[in-house]
Amino acid sequence: MEPVAETTLNSSWSWLPQDISQIFYIVVILSFLYVVLKGIQLYWWNRYLVKGLSCFPGPPTHWLYGHIKMVNSVVQHGSLLKLISPQMTKTYPYCYPIWYGRFLAFLSINHPEYAKAVFSRNGKKCLTYGLLILNGPKWQQHRRLLTPGFHFDVLKPYVTLMADSVKEMLDVLEKLIPKHTTVSLEMFEHVTLMTFDTIMKCAFSYQGNCQTDRNNAYINTVFDISCMIMQRLKTPLYHSDLIYWFSSQGFRFRKACKLAHQHTDNVIRERKKYLKNEKEFEKILKKRRLDFLDILLCRSVITGRVQCVPRPFVVAHP
């Protein structure tokens, strides 16, 4: 009985190498093959980018870092928006490439005709699929879903909300700038917060006071995500999804994205509860304006077709 059991055990594990060193050699060979194949892939990808962007003049690039050093110097001395400063647009009036290393590049477009060519439906290879370049029934379905949100009667009441956000920004600036003095102030952060506040009010009817409450966890998370995206662009090793996934920066990025998604999911979940409540449902029908979230939640897509809903769902009455 014992020899039979021993024979069965040996046959079940016969695929394993007898010498542990053979396992090490196999791992080394497979790793070497992976590195070689990845190197060949990156080489051809670089050739593809160089061929596609060679016809566009741009700032001189480093053979390894590209424009990363230039980007770092710009960020240290001011905003990244200085990359598209009047001097750059004067030197390159149409467009110019920006290289982050040798395997990641962007085309900065300065001229409207170039933008028209890229964002047209003929330039769909340059863009991901969305309402801008879709065609056919899918485009019609998405268009019918979003059109009510951009109706004039819907957008008109938003002017008051936008004005309130701008007024709140001006109140903040008045506190920062003493009267009867000439002081320069960086406006990028304040305008960003004002824009974000406007979007949250118009799209979600969310009153977050993000312009005055600088300890808002959601706002800080959004800013952290923006900084981490920029940091990844400036670090060539982080361009690899595998390396970035196992890095501490990648862990922080996934955690921040999870927090941001939880916030928006909670807002949508609470609004769905309101729609299920008949009293709240009647209040929404009587609202002078509907935010985008109400419009999208009240227009359901059934069997590939957009279901028409009563007029109060679609157009905000004056």
UniProtKB/TrEMBL annotation:
<keyword id="KW-0812">Transmembrane</keyword>
<dbReference type="GO" id="GO:0004497">
    <property type="term" value="F:monooxygenase activity"/>
</dbReference>
<dbReference type="InterPro" id="IPR001128">
    <property type="entry name" value="Cyt_P450"/>
</dbReference>
<dbReference type="InterPro" id="IPR036396">
    <property type="entry name" value="Cyt_P450_sf"/>
</dbReference>
<dbReference type="GO" id="GO:0005506">
    <property type="term" value="F:iron ion binding"/>
</dbReference>
<keyword id="KW-1133">Transmembrane helix</keyword>
<comment type="similarity">
    <text>Belongs to the cytochrome P450 family.</text>
</comment>
<keyword id="KW-0479">Metal-binding</keyword>
<keyword id="KW-0408">Iron</keyword>
<dbReference type="GO" id="GO:0020037">
    <property type="term" value="F:heme binding"/>
</dbReference>
<keyword id="KW-0472">Membrane</keyword>
<dbReference type="Pfam" id="PF00067">
    <property type="entry name" value="p450"/>
</dbReference>
<dbReference type="InterPro" id="IPR002402">
    <property type="entry name" value="Cyt_P450_E_grp-II"/>
</dbReference>
<protein>
    <recommendedName>
        <fullName>Cytochrome P450</fullName>
    </recommendedName>
</protein>
<keyword id="KW-0503">Monooxygenase</keyword>
<keyword id="KW-0349">Heme</keyword>
<dbReference type="InterPro" id="IPR050196">
    <property type="entry name" value="Cytochrome_P450_Monoox"/>
</dbReference>
<keyword id="KW-0560">Oxidoreductase</keyword>
<feature type="transmembrane region" description="Helical">
    <location>
        <begin position="20"/>
        <end position="37"/>
    </location>
</feature>
<dbReference type="GO" id="GO:0016705">
    <property type="term" value="F:oxidoreductase activity, acting on paired donors, with incorporation or reduction of molecular oxygen"/>
</dbReference>
